[in-house]
Specification:
Layout (H helix, E strand, L loop, with lengths): L1 H16 L4 E5 L1 H6 L2 H38 L5 H26 L4 H28 L1 E6 L16 H8 L3
């Protein structure tokens, strides 16, 4: 509610202080849905993610199998063998955890892969929006897909199709 109020207050302030300024909206979700390279990049990310998840799952399954085997044989093992088996299980679980972090962590391989695939597409869109902004004299362009503060906007203010046209997509 505070965000909505703040957005409305900011828009009213801008509207009263910026009489000659022009505003426009884009819908990034709409734009991205109409770019085949973005769809291909998303599918490529999904494939890589599934492959890496299968590797992590295999290690976790291995650790679970080791644990079940340990439980069934624990009565027959000496204290030294028990400790050795427990350490092996813990090492396997740590290996699975480390691999998961390597692939899916905040700075993991999936993040880097997403950046390398998506950044060029996003840069191309940004440059097209910037060119349209300069060409048509817009002072501000908002993304209606990411801003919940926009209650209503005239379809005339949406330049998403102009951006797609500038990028060569219809």
């Amino acid at each position: 509610m505070k965000r909505l109020f703040f957005t409305l207050a900011m828009m009213l302030t801008l509207a009263t202080s910026a009489n000659a300024q022009k505003f426009a909206l884009v819908d990034m979700e709409y734009i991205l849905r109409h770019i085949p390279a973005y769809e291909r990049a998303g599918e490529q990310l999904n494939q890589v993610s599934r492959k890496w998840q299968a590797e992590v799952d295999a290690l976790q399954q291995e650790a679970q199998t080791m644990y079940k085997k340990y439980q069934s044989e624990a009565v027959f093992l000496s204290d030294e063998q028990k400790v050795k088996s427990e350490e092996a299980i813990i090492a396997k679980e740590k290996e699975a955890s480390d691999l998961k972090k390597k692939y899916f962590g905040p700075e993991g391989e999936l993040f880097k892969k997403r950046e390398s695939l998506m950044a060029p597409i996003q840069d191309e869109i940004y440059n097209a929006i910037k060119d349209i902004c300069e060409l048509k004299g817009y002072s501000l362009i908002l993304d209606r897909a990411s801003d919940a503060g926009i209650i209503f906007a005239s379809p005339k203010a949406d330049i998403s199709n102009d951006v797609l046209a500038k990028l060569g997509y219809n």
